[in-house]
Design a protein that fits this description.
Layout lengths: L2 E6 L2 H10 L5 E3 L2 E3 L3 E5 L5 E3 L26 E3 L4 H11 L4 E7 L4 H14 L5 E4 L7 H9 L2 E2 L4 H37 L12 H17 L4 E11 L3 E8 L12 E2 L3 E2 L2 H12 L6 E14 L7 H12 L3 H13 L15 H5 L1 H8 L2 H4 L8 H11 L38 H16 L5 E12 L2 E12 L3 H4 L24 E13 L8 H9 L8 H6 L11 H10 L3 E3 L6 E3 L1 H11 L8 H15 L5 H20 L4 H8 L31 E3 L3 E4 L9 E3 L12 H10 L1 E9 L2 E9 L5 E5 L1
Helix pairs in contact: 1-4, 3-5, 5-20, 5-21, 5-22, 6-19, 8-9, 8-16, 9-14, 11-13
């Protein structure tokens, strides 16, 4: 009797599949088995790409002449630490009684890659292979996923993009890390006083490092500029006071004046004082006039749902969690069936999910009886009951929260309504994040918040002062979202006091005053805002609504961004303040940035990194072929390798290190072996001077040292350059009075080290 084999990504997921599919059998070493099915699992990656030395042992040693390394056929190997589990999975796949293999790894590019590597290594061809694609680990979703499983071949394009992503990271990492280490590693070591420095380069990693360093330098180079705003206080009918802020709009005496900072203030205080004098001139009664008044209602809709980047940003601000910590928590909640798949870029739901959203809400009704909530969170029971009783979920598919076109692999993160029995066992932070997601989800079923907005333009002569006020009159979804803010009556809850204020009304000026302000530098990235900037290809877009409208390829993926930040911290290129979650570069990170920007600057550009990611998406969508992508990739690696090999910018780079704060050249001397044939220490750098058949040269010639003296350079003057002359030059810095008798003329020749660090011949 034939059986089905289910291959999950990890043991816990395999267990959930066994429960959902009612596979009651024997637990064996690395798999479960019943009379109808077998369930086994990977433990993350079982196979990875082979290092260059597996192609040829010569590649174990890093040598410039071997670059670029571009294999014609890529090699893969089983990871030694998990070989035992690989052999178990392999043996199950090769069993003759297995007729169908269900691929149950995570539904995404990386999950696809994990299985495909195993599949290629095992190379089983006589089985039916189907792909299970699910958005949560609830039993209904698992059973539906198995029932609707499609042939694995339908995901070949996704597999192609996964292989290409790995090859891209491999080629850029292997080639550029070796290239820059061989070219500049010793320069860094000389500066730091270390024996050896590896320069780590990555397609996404180097770009993110660049974003952190550039922001830090913007802040460091920022010069505060003072400016002087003019504000006025007005009184209407001796009862109503309000303030206005002057702007130099069209019609103003100072419109487009170069005396202004933008249109909101003066560059010099003296000019602001003169302006106030002008306003008071011929205005002894100090009166002004209402030029325009507008009253209108303004609606604010509930925000879009969480994707991973939005959630990581929120948790960074609210709970001071790193993106990596947030991902671990939501992954755990997903595996407990409480949330849908977390590694998603989408902030909306699909139509099919929207039609069955009542199941999620019905499940959340059990929070009241299942979960121990504190006083603040108990309100969730009422919100859920209101949505259910009044059928507020009907028609969801017609709203902006549902859009199939904005979904690639998975829809937004929402509560499943299941797994609530796990809630009371969760750590406090896990509970906080779960309830945060629940509130964001429930909010989309509530009405918009409504505000009364008042705008007043008050004129003094031809100058306009602007006043605006906004008061919430219907909280709507804010009842759910702003539960921790005392915003209900934070301002005056009505505008009745302004009802008699009409256009054309004459009012009294209380006072006109100068308010000194100054420009502020850009903010440093925190771990959450960096994730958002990565998602939006290097642009930090603070506005929630605007982010929801922008669609494009970001830097990295939702599954890898947190990992990239963690790696940069691990290799000490950036620092993360755990209390504030602020990111700053280290001195080492800034040095590496200088090296990359001076050799392969495109690696730093977010737009280019995002374009690579977009290309991978196009491959998975079938818009471009794998071969075309590889041609472009290999061309990029080859072109930049050749370019860097021709550079001689080491001394320039070392000069650039001096501008990095807290980065001082080490006084330690590296314990490098002095060449036996050294004629002495170079007068231009710390290299050694050697001799070959044609010249005397520095061992640091490849790193930009300009010390070279050709033996025949004085031949026409009757002088042969020899080692005695060179040794004296190195010892004393100058050799003078070298005499030559040629054509009955006596010529004095001197050699010295010039200001631009190269030997200079002087003949007189």
């Amino acid at each position: 009797m034939s059986k089905a084999l289910f291959v999950a990504e990890k043991p816990s997921v395999a267990m959930e599949f066994s429960k959902a599919l009612n596979i009651k059998g024997t637990k064996k070493n690395g798999y479960f088995e019943s009379d109808k099915a077998v369930v086994t699992w990977c433990v993350g990656h079982l196979v990875n790409m082979s290092y260059p030395e597996k192609y040829d042992i010569k590649y174990k040693k890093w040598v410039l002449k071997d670059l670029p390394f571009l294999p014609k056929k890529y090699k893969y190997e089983v990871i030694p630490g998990v070989k035992k589990q690989f052999d178990i999975v392999k043996s199950q796949m090769q069993r003759k009684d297995i007729s169908t293999i269900y691929v149950c790894t995570d539904s995404g590019r990386e999950g696809e890659y994990i299985y495909r590597l195993v599949d290629d290594m095992v190379d089983v061809k006589d089985k039916v292979k189907k792909r299970v694609w699910i958005d949560s680990q609830t039993e209904d979703e698992i059973r539906k996923g198995v029932k609707n499983a499609k042939p694995l071949s339908e995901y070949d394009k996704l597999s192609d993009s996964a292989y290409l992503r790995a090859k891209e990271d491999y080629l850029m990492g292997i080639n550029f890390s070796r290239l820059l280490t061989l070219m500049y590693g010793r320069t860094v070591s000389d500066y730091l006083g270390t024996n050896y420095t590896v320069i780590a380069v990555g397609r996404v990693m180097s770009c993110v490092l660049g974003m952190v360093v550039k922001r830090e330098r913007e802040i460091r180079d920022f010069i505060k500029t003072p400016y002087y705003k003019v504000n006025s206080s007005f009184k209407f009918e001796n009862s109503l006071d309000y303030d206005g802020e002057w702007k130099a709009v069209e019609g103003s005496k100072y419109y487009m004046s170069n005396l202004l900072f933008k249109d909101i203030g003066f560059k010099e205080k003296e000019n602001a004082e003169k302006f106030i004098d002008y306003l008071k001139e011929d205005n002894e009664e100090l009166i002004a006039k209402i030029e325009e008044i507008q009253r209108k209602k303004e609606k604010k809709n509930p925000p879009l749902l969480y994707n991973l980047a939005e959630l990581q940003n929120e948790c960074s601000k609210k709970f001071k969690l790193s993106p990596d910590e947030t991902l671990k928590i939501v992954q755990g909640l997903y595996e407990k069936k409480m949330l849908t798949y977390p590694r998603t870029d989408a902030r909306v739901l699909s139509k099919s999910v929207a039609k069955e959203i009542d199941k999620n809400i019905r499940g959340l009704l059990n929070i009241k009886n299942t979960c121990n909530l504190d006083n603040e969170d108990e309100a969730i029971n009422g919100f859920t009951k209101n949505i259910w009783d009044n059928k507020l979920f009907l028609g969801l598919e017609k709203t902006k929260y549902v859009n199939d076109k904005a979904i690639t692999d998975h829809y937004a993160i929402i509560p499943t309504g299941q797994g609530l029995g796990n809630f009371n066992k969760l750590h406090d932070m896990d509970k906080n994040i779960y309830l945060l997601i629940v509130r964001r989800f429930l909010a989309i079923f509530y009405p918009s918040a409504v505000f009364n907005k008042l705008s007043i333009i008050t004129s003094i002569k031809d100058e306009r002062f602007y006043t605006s006020s906004k008061v919430c009159i219907e909280r709507g979804y804010l009842e759910i979202m702003d539960y921790d803010k005392k915003s209900k009556n934070s301002k005056k809850d009505n505008m009745d006091e302004f009802k008699n204020l009409k256009k054309g009304a004459v009012i009294k000026i209380n006072k006109i005053e100068i308010k000194e302000s100054e420009t502020t530098p850009p903010k440093r990235y925190n771990s959450g805002s960096m994730i958002l900037a990565m998602e939006n290809a290097g642009k930090l877009i603070e506005d929630d609504e605007l982010r929801g409208q922008i669609k494009g390829s970001g830097i990295g993926t939702s599954a890898t961004r947190a990992e990239i930040l963690s790696k940069l911290q691990k290799i000490k290129y950036i620092k993360l303040n755990k209390k504030t979650q602020i990111l700053t570069p280290t001195s080492m990170g800034e040095m590496i940035y200088n090296i990359i920007i001076g050799s392969i600057p495109s690696l730093i550009k977010p737009e280019l990194t995002a374009s690579w990611e977009k290309g991978l998406t196009m491959v998975s969508n079938g818009e471009i072929g794998s071969e075309d992508y590889m041609v472009k990739l290999e061309s990029y690696v080859m072109k930049n390798t050749q370019k860097v090999l021709g550079l001689r910018n080491h001394l320039k780079l070392m000069d650039s290190f001096t501008s990095i704060p807290n980065c001082k050249k080490s006084t330690k001397t590296n314990k490098r072996k002095k060449p036996e044939n050294s004629l002495g220490k170079c007068g231009c750098c710390d290299g050694d001077i050697l001799e070959n058949s044609k010249a005397f040269y520095c061992t640091n010639w490849s790193r930009g040292c300009k010390f070279t003296l050709w033996k025949n350079s004085l031949e026409k003057h009757g002088v042969i350059m020899d080692d005695k002359i060179i040794k004296k030059l190195l010892k004393e810095g100058k050799v003078s009075g070298i005499e030559s008798n040629q054509n009955n003329k006596k010529v004095n020749i001197s050699i010295r080290i010039s200001n631009d660090k190269k030997p200079l011949l002087e003949i007189f």
